Amino acid sequence: MTQPQPPNPSWIHVALQDFELPLLRQAMRLLGDAEAARDVVQETFLRLCRADRAQVEGHLGAWLGTVCRNLALDQLRKEMRMHSLNAAGALDAAVGPQPPPDPARQAEDRGVADDLATALAQLTANQREVMRLRFQGGLSYQEIGQATGLSVSNVGVQLHTALLRLRSRMQDPRSTDAMDVANTSDAAERSR
Q1: Are the C-beta atoms of 23 and 29 separated by less than 8 Å?
Q2: Do 140 and 84 fall within a single domain?
Q3: Are 29 and 90 in a shared domain?
Q4: Number of domains present in the structure of the chain
Q5: What is the spatial distance between Cα 11 and Cα 53, in angstroms, rounded to a whole number?
Q6: Where a domain ends, among 70, 98, 126?
């Protein structure tokens, strides 16, 4: 096995000149925060410094774009978790002490959550990502398209199909008929 090539400062400098602004725009579109976008781009170039040049040369722009996008999405996930925790804490403080939860209701809620997790797992990777960016990240179709490389119309198709599949599954978790219709729709979309 060959040792990774040490980073060449001039190669890194050229990459920084060529890709820093496009990566900043990409991260800014995803995060909506200039400071967070700069942090993501900085981490992207730090990872480039640690990467094996031979592995990324020839597709440097795509590699940097993918790393930047993944870091930005990780940041969005982290912020969504923190926002959820903060909102839950504020709600608990505002509402005050609650009576003990009803065990039957808890079991029903767990069943719904399990059904939803199963239904989400049956979506394609593109459908899950589009759903996450739309509903967790709050991104527009155009922003999702820019982040994923999908066309705006394909984003719409992916989102629509995913929602149909989830709705069908949640109405009757044992049903596969509507899932078959969605699978047929997916096959038709891939054949275009």
Answers
A1: no
A2: no
A3: yes
A4: 2
A5: 9
A6: 98
**Residues 94, 119: one domain?**
no
- pTM confidence score: 0.45
Range of the domain at 26: 1-98
Q: What is the DSSP letter of 58?
A: T
Show the tokens assigned to 67: 């790393």
pLDDT in tens, the chain (192 residues): 555 555 567 888 889 998 999 899 888 888 888 999 999 999 999 999 988 888 888 888 888 988 998 899 888 888 776 665 555 555 555 555 666 767 777 666 677 777 777 887 888 888 888 887 787 767 788 878 877 888 999 999 999 999 998 888 777 655 554 445 445 455 544 444
* Domain identity same for 14 and 74: yes
Residues 6+ apart with CB under 8 A from 40: 27, 31, 68, 71, 72, 75
